[in-house]
Amino acid sequence: MFLPISFIFSFLFSSTNAADFCVGDLNGPVGPAGYSCKKTATEDDFSFSGLLRTAGNTSNLVKAAITPAFSTQFPGVNGLGISIARLDLAVGGVIPMHTHPRASELILVMDGTLFAGFISSDNKVYSKSLNEGDIMIFPQGLLHFQINTGKTQSVAFVSFNSADPGVQILDFALFTNDLPTDIIEGTTFLDAAQIKKLKGVLGGTG
Known about the structure:
It is a single chain. The chain is an alpha+beta fold. Among the domains are: 53-166, Jelly Rolls (Sandwich), CATH 2.60.120; 176-202, no CATH class. The chain has helices at residues 5-14, 170-175, 181-188, 192-202; strands at residues 30-31, 34-35, 64-69, 83-89, 94-99, 105-111, 114-119, 125-130, 135-138, 144-148, 154-160, 168-169. Strand 1 (30-31) and strand 2 (34-35) form a beta hairpin. The longest helix has 11 residues, at 192-202. It is globular, with a radius of gyration of 22 Å. Oxalate binds at residues 100, 105. This is Germin-like protein. One of its GO terms (molecular function) is manganese ion binding.
């Protein structure tokens, strides 16, 4: 049985692009699968202008800045399994040991020199000095870091296979909350005085 041409054309042109993408509705709830979809998308939802051209503010404790283009900042990547961010590190700047629970990461150094690495689940260290044009990958969920070991500002772009990779910074997880000092001491073997000092620097209590 053949379908009439008029029916085929009617079906094709009545179909919507709803299944092609899901631009995030930032006014709606967000869950593990991301944001719900906006009813109407525009060209502006699929471009992200300006912010990644601008250097981040590195006048902070770690001398580094991260400018993300994740689903919260760039709703067009919602549901697509991709995102990007800019890293700026002053001389001596560091992105502390951290993990991304929902994504693997690829870093591309644009300017300067970075020493970067990750630690596998069997506690083996994979580290490398990276220069302009070099790339490195960090597998999902593994602790990793970047340090500017050069004599000039460093700039890099990092991409993720998630619109919302998530992040947990090890030092902040331990020392910026009210987890009791004796618990941290017992589980990390750090000296109590050092723990209290780090809590004082990073804002933790207990």
